[in-house]
Design goal:
The chain has helices spanning about 25-30, 35-45, 55-65, 95-105, 140-145, 150-155, 165-170, 180-185, 220-235; strands spanning about 10, 20, 45-50, 85-90, 120-130, 135-140, 160-165, 190-195, 195, 205, 210-215, 240, 250-255, 255-260, 270-275. It is of the alpha+beta class and about 280 residues long. The protein has one domain (about 5-275): Clavaminate synthase-like (Double-stranded beta-helix), CATH 3.60.130. The strands form four sheets. A seven-stranded mixed β-sheet has the order 1-2-3-13-5-15-4, with helices on one face. A three-stranded antiparallel β-sheet has the order 12-6-14. A three-stranded antiparallel β-sheet has the order 8-7-11.
Amino acid sequence: MPVAECTIAATDLTPLIGARIDADAGTLLSGGHAAQIRALLAARGVLVFPAAALSDEQQIAFTATLGTPAHENNGTLGPDGKPQAIYKVDAAQDDQHAIRRLRNNFLWHLDGSMHEVPILASILSAKRIAPAGGQTEWANSCAAFAALPMEEQAELAKLRVVHANWALAARQNPEPSYAEFQQSRRGPSKSQPLVWQHASGRKSLVVGSTAAYVEGMDPVESQDLLVRLRDWVTRPQFVYRHEWQVGDMVMWDNTATLHRALPYEMNCGRLMHRTMLKGEEPIA
């Protein structure tokens, strides 16, 4: 849907990814523009709501206007033992496993690459920002695929890639103890098409930090392809980088983008609050 057709004020941030939406809280919470926001999300991949400054309750309500909220992937249970509607991405961590999970966010990825149905979208609000680093980048994996030669697109569409927790763990801890490796192997692992052929007709590349190997390919050639494609998807023309300000809210299409946070010091005070929309189609 072209930005000009949207009745809320929206401006493209780069030619291929990202749009800024200027709307007050009442407009967002009304739900009256939900269909337009979803269409814009599909077209632009990333939507920035500068200085939205929504409370947790407002962010939860806004998320619910756009689809079915997802709690199950947030990873941390609340005091009542139930999944949280708001997940706090908090740099104030002393536990080494929590720090390692946070540092996984420094690597290009899409959330739920090892799930049957990944989440549709995430919404992230900045409560406190890092004094240095901590920007977030998104890469348009649909535009990147469309820019490949047609012959290569056809060949890539034949391939499957195993995404695995152990592959992600190895990027943070390349020399694990055997006990650590066994623990990482107990995490999820799933074979996925390299090219996601969406129900809408668009196609995207499913690559990133969880990609372990291409099925049936020589190990070195497999890594060569996966690294080359990740490098291609994350070329500057496909990427939007957000310089966070407190109160900013950013929403992204998890099914059509990769994302990462730029490194920052742990315990620097950075705090983001995240909500999510439940996925609506499997990777196929």
